[in-house]
Amino acid sequence: MISSTRQIASAAFGATQRRCIASTSRSSRAMPVIPDTTPASSSSFGVQNEPMRLLMLAKPGSGKGTLSGRLTSKYDIQFVSTGDMLREQIKAKTEVGQQAEGIVASGGLVPDELMIKLLGTSLESSSMKGKSWILDGFPRTLVQGERLDRYLGSTGQPLSLIVHLDVPDEIIMGRISDRWIHPGSGRIYNYSYNRPKVDGLDDVTGEPLVRRADDNPEIFARRLKSFYAQTAPLLEYYQSTAPSNLVSLSGKTSDEIWPQLESLVRSRFSSLKSKSETKRIVPEAVIRRAEREISRDHKDFYSSLVPIIPAAY
């Protein structure tokens, strides 16, 4: 099944390459030139003690979800997905959810103002105070980027890192035929570099994997063209407003990009802790207080004992 799908995709890609990829290639020449900052040189920007507030910009199929998942599974980082939040708000029948539900049901696009309000309910909650996070799903256009910056600036928590994942178009087009997902969790597998343990089945639940309806060369080529049209101005905006926070990481697979990304965030954010470190760390004051309480309890216990003298003695 996999090989036949790959053959179909290869043939379709050959047919669409001249029509669609040529146009995306022309668009790619209009993309701003972002310095390919290596992790070793990233320290020149200075280590930050504040939480990481990360936005990743990448073409569809670049591995953004995989890389975000690796960061959040290893480090104490929250994943803020506007799509997930929107679905949760609609399900919970909140004020924002009720406003969005009718728009989504009619096939419309949720207004930027409503998306900003939705973000506010999450980022300004007490559970997110002082937390590092990755923002996913917003912004996608220049106007959205400007509005997001104004909102984050007003709350005193502007973006501290913008990462652009630079993966060649031909690599993305070649890998989509191998991509399968677990619909219940959104876990993504790829038969080229991230195979499931058992072909066709999710590693965690054992449930069947499926292909996304838009994972075909014709549709994907259009999505790439749309990405270039929308994201080139957004990257130019961040390059002009926050050049030291915009970093481009290049590679053909997530495994190639992951060491660069991990080294970058660790070198930039000294306060970022792995989840294992977070579990191990106990404040010294807490340890000392516990020791004093244990010592006091032992003394109280022994002092409460009354000598027992045998009656015949």
Keywords:
single chain; 313 residues; alpha/beta; 5-stranded parallel beta sheet; globular
Please describe what this structure looks like.
By secondary structure, the protein is an alpha/beta fold. The chain contains eleven helices and seven strands. It has helices spanning 2-28, 64-74, 82-92, 95-105, 112-123, 142-154, 169-175, 217-241, 254-268, 275-280, 284-303, and strands spanning 53-58, 77-81, 132-136, 161-166, 179-181, 188-190, 246-250. A five-stranded parallel β-sheet has the order 2-3-1-4-7, sandwiched between helices. A two-stranded antiparallel sheet has the order 5-6. Strand 5 and strand 6 (188-190) form a beta hairpin. Helix 6 (142-154) crosses helix 8.
Structural class: alpha/beta
Query: If strands are numbered along the chain, what order do they take across the biggest sheet?
Result: 2-3-1-4-7
Q: What is the H/E order?
A: HEHEHHHEHEHEEHEHHH
CA-to-CA gap between the ends?
92 Å
Mean model confidence by pLDDT:
79
**Major sheet: size, sense and barrel closure?**
5 strands, parallel
| Low-pLDDT sequence parts | 1-29, 37-44, 301-313
Radius of gyration: 26 Å
